[in-house]
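Q: My labmate handed me this sequence with no annotations at all. I'd like to see what the chain might look like in three dimensions before we decide whether it's worth expressing. Could you predict it?
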Amino acid sequence: MIELPKNYRELFKVAVQWVYDQEQFILEKGIGLTTDLKIDAYQVGVKKNEKVRLFKVDAIPIPSDPKLKNVLDDIRLLNSSTIGASYRYGILIKSEHWLDRKLIVHELVHTMQYERFGSIEAFLEQYIAECIKPGYPMGALEQEAWRIEDEICG
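A: Here is what I predict for the chain of 154 residues:
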């Protein structure tokens, strides 16, 4: 595991809480997976696909904390061009990509990765570290998501 730089480490608790809050909102307001998407989630390796919820947004939210926003800008994560985001069992999809199977499968891979790591904290630490080095989207977790998306959706 790559150690996060000190200035990022200081904001890590803020980032984890923000992701947790996003997940809780989506779990309360989102919709469950269709039968076909449950099959995709199973193929991806999601263990608790009944917990997954999708929520349509006009734009993927960006944290209001200015320091956290700056870090996310630095590592090219979550910006105006982001079309989907997985917050463990809560998945946001930008409205013009709503029910885009390839995008949802990609985000479901991240859900599976959260499960594999065992917590929001453990997944985020690795994912953010990979966004720093080798850089987004070249990290192993993102590459795994692209590979599995391609295997399932072609």
